[in-house]
Amino acid sequence: MNNCGFLLIDKPEGITSFQVISCLRKITSIKRIGHTGTLDPFATGLLPICIGPATRLASFVSSASKTYLATIKLGIKTDTGDLTGETIFTKPAEKLSPEIIQNTVKSILALKEQTPPQYSAIKVNGKRAYELARKGAEVELKPRPITVHDFMIIDKDGSTLTYQATVSKGTYIRTLSEQFAELTGNIATTIALRRIAVDKLSIDDAVELAELTTDNWLDHLISPARILTLPQIKIDDETSTKFMNGRFITSSDIAHDQYLVIRQSTMRVLGIARPIDDNRLKPEIVLPE
């Protein structure tokens, strides 16, 4: 077995995504491991992890929409946008009527861009923005396009509010919380954040990091065929050999930009193919068997 697949980890609070990878390297004895989208240390929830050759498929997961549960506290603003930072401003929270909330949700759904927070991993002149921010440097970050696919209020208790949002890649929930507050005439900071889905992947299918051991981690390894949403094409052994050698393969039914290629006899994922004409597919990513 080439140990090519994904682990869906329920990341605990207080550790970085890289620390999750470091822990998994010790458990699996595999060095080639990567994640598909960073979660802040204070955040919890779904962190898809690529194992072995599956790291070459990371971009197909990291580009997917993500769903979060976020709890915000009105009346307080921190330099990081969450409770790990220092309070820089406070003011009494304005009351939120159902009408204000309804109009604000409409405005959030209409957002087309967002300026990343100063405390982010974006590189500025070769340095991470958060590294510069910690040194007190002013960092000018440009707005980036985003899409808020869904936004709903889950609970409200006084100055504390919980919402669920499904957003595009590159959307910062800490900033989205601040944007929501500003639209209501408030300030706010995120006090809890949990990722509950990445595209079709759900937190319900994730395993807690503490539960994994050297003896059981393979039981939780998931084939790329169950993770990626690409259309699949199954090929026989002879055609599989051609594909693995980087040669074109043929198909009579090509209707998409990319295909997940699977060896039919073993159901092993061989890689990704891209059409070059009406009936030929060119190997784009070839995974070792």
What is the mean predicted local confidence, pLDDT?
Answer: 92
Rg on CA atoms, Å: 22 Å
Q: How many domains comprise the coordinates?
A: 3
pLDDT < 50 runs, ≥5 residues? none
What does this protein look like?
The chain has 3 domains: 5-64 and 200-226, Pseudouridine synthase (2-Layer Sandwich); 66-198, Pseudouridine synthase (2-Layer Sandwich); 230-286, Roll (Archaeosine Trna-guanine Transglycosylase, Chain: A, domain 4), CATH 2.30.130.10. The mean pLDDT is 92. 20% of the residues lie in helices and 35% in strands. The protein is elongated. It has 7 helices and 20 strands. Helix 3 (98-109) crosses helix 5 (173-183). The strands form 5 sheets. Strands 1, 2, 3, 4, 11, 12, 13, 14 and 15 form a 9-stranded mixed β-sheet that branches. A hairpin with a 4-residue loop joins strand 19 (268-275) and strand 20 (280-286). The protein is α+β, with helices and mostly antiparallel strands and 289 residues long.
